[in-house]
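Tokens in:
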């Protein structure tokens, strides 16, 4: 933001035809290149120089030893348009230049990469006149790689502005604070690390500061603060080095320069120029420099009392806008400001510059507005002001406005009577301006007090307080005790407390004297001395109702009605003890059909501060099968379950959100009524599950850092109650609870044993299918679909039938119906509390009409039934084979096998006789074969003999 303001201001300065209307000094030359102006003074001294448009403009600097004014190097293209050649900046070297009395600006110079050899001996920039607040500015230099001043040791006034220069690196090793002498701020815009691949290491430098690895920063004479350091061999009037001990060979002079010789004061026959620090003859002063003679000085303007100096703004309708030191300098020497004045400076400046510029101002024709000055602390520079006319002030209400000056502590005591001819004062939002100073100022100024609008600080700012020795003792999680000596106490005592967030540091200098948006955080308690507890030497007061485990900034003030005796304590930081943690907020941030992932939120008090661990309990809330079976879901089907609210219309969404707001408000009220704390421990068990018939299915202790946890191995589409308690060494708080269902599975409600057939020569259909093994909660009904596939283009002929889960179970999971049409395919849609799952089409086969369908289908209910059936089948098949072997005498064909069989002889004989028996097979009901055996007469007799 400020960079953009600097660039816009610079461009305006470069484009305007005049810099100021009445200025007769060198600043008029900003918009007038001086290529045609011939120096009439000695060759080494040049006036202000403007180098732009053509790189040949650098020729103006030939033989210049000092520039008594400013130098602009701006708007130079890559190609010299005069000769159509690329500018070669390396050939422009000016080793004679040592001093610039005003400022130096670089702006939009193309194809220049370094200035190390351009001004190798430039030693000082005086900053007598500034551009805004700056004596050195470098901005929009797209090709500049390094900023190197080999001999520059001091910017005596003003500061440095380094704007956007994409390739300009290695600025972090420059000691800008030692380079600039006056108080204030340098604006250094460092490029990103991605743009600068290397950094200067200041190799070979006597100190740790450098412009680059090739150019060290020169710090001789400690920026003229210590004149003796490093100047043992130079003349005492030298600055920045010399060739020998003669005052003629100094790089730059400490004070005055007379014909390139450093002198302590100017000769009698010459006039000293305070602005240029030069000694001039009368002709040099008045004709060459266009300055004025006053006594033995060569001055920019006539001082007070010699010439009435009425200053006008640039436009008759415009006020004086004083936004920086450059603007303030424009009114220097003015006695009457013929318009309104708006003073608003956002940068840190040297307030002595304001004294010099306002020293002669006696009258302001318009109104005076001093507002939003960030660092301005005093208005003493206005002590010479005698009248504010208030012309053109809105409705003539206010001639003087003091608004939102954050650090303003003092006004001024007028040296003579100060009068506001029209209107009163508007004084607000100056939070460090104490009441007593303001009241005294109002009494000193002649004006209509009935038109005033004044701030009331409610004793927030004490004018000159003594120190109050306060001791604070933390009593518990919600109370602290203040104590202080009785002898330091005035009539009233104010306790001021402010809660601080974790790791927040509050500046003591800003305590209650802060901006309005932060003042709401302060708690204030005003007491009279008679209301306090006391003993023989001290007063006591206990403050209750504080937040537990919270940092507080505390302050105590004491004052009387007359404001003569005031005292305040230092800003003291205390921390209340921990309380039993309140219930955490529980959210389900992710879920599947078998898991729930919890997110624990703990509000303002962080987990690291108040919670040692969490207790998690999970309860299963199963759907009631009896209640579900009471309802005929074929007549009253369920709605499709939706996990999100994406299908809600506008009214339903608003209704749901209103219900959520009411529920949240109700929970908040209940938490306030039944708050769980160390003072009310009986409330900490409210809401706990005490039903022994429904114990938790899952419990877990979570560490305080585990604010996210996944509960696994849960049932599909089951409702679970999740309860979490936050605990520390003082106990566990009340439950934070949430009820949530797991997701449903799209395949859980499928059936895999659907079979269907139609009885031959009839329309009786017989279906069989079991319930899903692990469904999504409870099954409610089945929708059975019959269809007849018709020729292409004619669609399907279908029939639907709904049966409830209870009905299907009662019929042993079989469905028999008679229809009027011969259908060839059937499908089933399984309806559960969660979803509707469609089971694909199955072809209908033909049942055998002579056999009951019940005897031909498998009725096993599980894979275990199939396994049992298979076991018995194998045993039966094996026994049948053995029986056939026995009856058919098959082992006779296996002689080796017969030797190992334990067969008795009588059995063998019987077997031989049985071979003669007659066998006959009969087919019964087309299903099974029964063997009938008729023994012969011989075998019958044999049996009789045996008997």
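Residues out:
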């Amino acid at each position: 933001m400020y960079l953009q303001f600097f660039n816009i201001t610079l461009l305006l300065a470069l484009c305007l035809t005049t810099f100021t209307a009445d200025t007769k000094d060198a600043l008029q030359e900003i918009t007038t290149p001086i290529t045609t102006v011939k120096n009439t003074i000695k060759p080494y001294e040049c006036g202000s120089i403007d180098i732009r448009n053509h790189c040949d403009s650098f020729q103006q600097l030939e033989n210049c030893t000092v520039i008594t004014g400013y130098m602009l190097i701006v708007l130079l293209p890559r190609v010299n348009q005069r000769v159509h050649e690329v500018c070669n900046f390396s050939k422009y070297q000016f080793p004679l230049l040592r001093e610039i009395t005003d400022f130096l600006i670089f702006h939009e110079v193309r194809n220049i990469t370094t200035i190390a050899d351009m001004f190798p001996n430039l030693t000082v920039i005086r900053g007598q006149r500034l551009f805004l607040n700056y004596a050195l500015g470098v901005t929009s230099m797209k090709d500049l790689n390094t900023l190197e001043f080999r001999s520059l040791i001091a910017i005596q006034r003003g500061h440095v502005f380094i704007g956007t220069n994409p390739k300009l690196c290695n600025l972090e090793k420059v000691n800008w604070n030692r380079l600039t002498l006056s108080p204030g701020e340098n604006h250094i815009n460092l490029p990103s690390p991605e743009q600068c691949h290397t950094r200067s290491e200041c190799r070979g430098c006597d100190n740790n500061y450098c412009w680059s690895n090739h150019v060290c920063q020169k710090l001789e004479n400690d920026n003229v603060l210590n004149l003796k350091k490093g100047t043992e061999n130079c003349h005492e009037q030298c600055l920045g080095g010399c060739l020998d001990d003669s005052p003629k060979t100094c790089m730059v002079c400490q004070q005055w320069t007379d014909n390139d010789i450093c002198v302590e004061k100017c000769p009698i026959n010459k006039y000293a120029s305070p602005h240029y620090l030069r000694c001039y003859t009368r002709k040099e002063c008045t004709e060459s420099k266009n300055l004025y003679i006053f006594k033995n000085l060569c001055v920019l303007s006539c001082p007070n009392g010699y010439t009435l100096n009425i200053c006008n703004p640039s436009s008759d309708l415009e006020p004086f806008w004083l936004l920086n030191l450059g603007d303030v300098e424009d009114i220097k020497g003015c006695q009457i400001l013929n318009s309104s004045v708006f003073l608003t400076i956002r940068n840190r400046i040297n307030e002595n510059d304001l004294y010099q510029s306002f020293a002669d101002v006696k009258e302001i024709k318009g109104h005076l507005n001093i507002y939003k000055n960030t660092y301005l602390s005093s208005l003493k520079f206005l002590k010479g002001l005698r009248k504010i006319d208030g012309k053109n002030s809105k409705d003539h209400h206010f001639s003087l406005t003091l608004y939102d000056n954050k650090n303003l502590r003092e006004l001024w005591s007028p040296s003579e009577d100060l009068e506001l001819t029209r209107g009163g004062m508007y004084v607000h939002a100056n939070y460090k301006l104490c009441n007593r100073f303001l009241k005294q100022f109002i009494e000193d100024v002649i004006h209509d007090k009935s038109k005033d609008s004044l701030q009331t600080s409610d004793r927030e700012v004490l004018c000159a307080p003594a120190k109050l020795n306060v001791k604070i003792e933390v009593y518990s999680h919600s109370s602290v005790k203040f104590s202080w000596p009785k002898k330091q106490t005035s009539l009233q005592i104010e306790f001021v407390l402010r809660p601080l967030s974790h790791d927040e540091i509050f500046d003591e200098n800003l305590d209650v004297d802060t901006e309005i948006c932060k003042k709401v955080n302060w708690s204030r308690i005003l007491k009279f001395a008679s209301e306090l507890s006391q003993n023989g030497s001290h007063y006591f007061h206990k403050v209750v109702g504080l937040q537990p485990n919270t940092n507080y900034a505390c302050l105590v003030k004491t004052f009387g009605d007359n404001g003569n005796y005031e005292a305040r304590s230092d800003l003291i930081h205390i921390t209340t003890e921990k309380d039993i943690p309140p219930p955490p907020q529980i959210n389900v941030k992710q879920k599947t059909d078998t898991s729930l992932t919890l997110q624990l939120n703990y509000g303002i008090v962080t987990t690291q501060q108040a919670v040692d661990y969490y207790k998690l309990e999970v309860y299963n809330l199963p759907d009631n099968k009896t209640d579900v079976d009471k309802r005929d879901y074929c007549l009253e089907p369920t709605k499709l379950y939706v996990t999100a609210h994406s299908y809600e219309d506008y009214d339903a969404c608003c209704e749901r959100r209103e219900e959520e707001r009411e529920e949240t408000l109700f929970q908040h009220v209940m938490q306030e009524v039944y708050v769980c704390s160390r003072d009310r421990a009986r409330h900490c068990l409210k809401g706990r599950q005490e039903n022994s018939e429904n114990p938790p299915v899952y419990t877990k202790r979570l560490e305080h850092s585990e604010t996210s946890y996944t509960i696994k191995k849960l049932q599909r589409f089951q409702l679970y109650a999740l309860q979490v308690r936050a605990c520390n060494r003082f106990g566990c708080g009340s439950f934070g609870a949430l009820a949530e269902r797991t997701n449903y599975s799209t395949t859980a409600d499928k059936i895999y044993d659907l079979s269907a057939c139609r009885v031959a020569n009839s329309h009786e259909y017989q279906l069989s299918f079991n319930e899903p093994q692990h469904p999504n909660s409870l099954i409610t009904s089945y929708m059975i679909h019959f269809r007849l596939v018709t020729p292409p283009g004619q669609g399907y002929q279908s029939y639907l039938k709904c049966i409830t889960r209870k009905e299907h179970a009662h019929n042993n999971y079989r469905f028999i119906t008679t229809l009027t049409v011969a259908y060839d395919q059937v499908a089933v849609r399984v309806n559960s509390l969660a979803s509707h799952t469609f089971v694909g089409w199955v072809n209908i086969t033909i049942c055998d009409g002579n056999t009951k369908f019940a005897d031909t289908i498998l009725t096993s209910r599980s894979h275990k039934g199939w396994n049992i059936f298979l076991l018995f089948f194998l045993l039966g098949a094996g026994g049948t084979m053995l029986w056939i072997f026995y009856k058919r005498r098959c082992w006779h064909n296996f002689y080796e096998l017969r030797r190992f069989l334990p067969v008795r002889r009588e059995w063998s004989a019987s077997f031989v006789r049985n071979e003669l028996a007659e066998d006959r097979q009969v087919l019964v009901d087309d299903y099974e074969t029964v063997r009938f055996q008729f023994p012969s007469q011989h075998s019958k007799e044999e049996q009789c003999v045996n008997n």
